[in-house]
Amino acid sequence: MTTTAFPTTTLPAGAGDFFALTKPRVMRSVVFTALCGMLAAPVQLPFTLAFTAILAIALAAGSAGALNQWYESDIDALMKRTAKRPLPAGKMERETALQFGVALGVFSVLLMGLAIGLIAAGLLAVSILFYVLVYTVGLKRRTPQNIVIGGAAGAFPPLIGWVAATGSLSTLPLLMFAIIFLWTPPHSWALALLIRDDYAKGGVPMLPVVASAATTRWQMLFYAVLMAAAAVAPWPLGLAGATYGLIATLTSLVFVGLTAWVVVQRAETTPAMKAERVLFVYSIGYILAIFATLAFDRLTA
Predict the structure, then answer these.
(1) pTM of the full predicted structure?
(2) Does any domain span residue 10?
């Protein structure tokens, strides 16, 4: 790990610092997609059990976020985007972050196991370990394909939500997994192109850092096309209705079109990268719309 000078004085950590350690923005996305997976399932859990399952998933996401920040505190200190996080800002000891992350993770898995069952709890444990050990420790600092393989970590929540409700897997939750998995590269690389210098400063080999902008953009388009196919697939497979199919088709075409705009744009400097900014913002709304529409479609079928 890179040697980084941290503040010599550690300030007392407050509740806000522990909350920031859980990466609340990521947690909200995890909870949303997990809830959509649960609502799309053919079996609906009683409210108390559904709430408990979602709480366990949220705590697991917080655990992964805390352990990620514990391990990457040296990188975070070097990057402008992350320098104000609790650890590089000197608001918390690394050991405290580690203990907090482990405690959250263990509790979340136990809660899921006791309230829902061993299959959902096991899948939840795998998702935490995948994000921390495979993505954070194994891939992030070693390969420009880190976000491609590591994208599976963010794709677990709808699977877990579905399994919590049904106790098993089927084609639709696997397609939901595939949508997020294939969505992650164009979404993440759009941001990485915008903050390429920050990643380079932190020594993170994101694709735009180690390859040309053109190479990155073409790979973004490749994954966007595959993602669009996965997003539309529930309709012709009879797993979703025409309303979902129409919305998925139209929004996916816009996504692919925006990614194509990114490809034809030749700007290499960050301020000129309007297409990347538009795609990044759109991609967030896109994934929310796709999952919300799918859940609504299944609930009203």
Answers:
(1) 0.92
(2) no
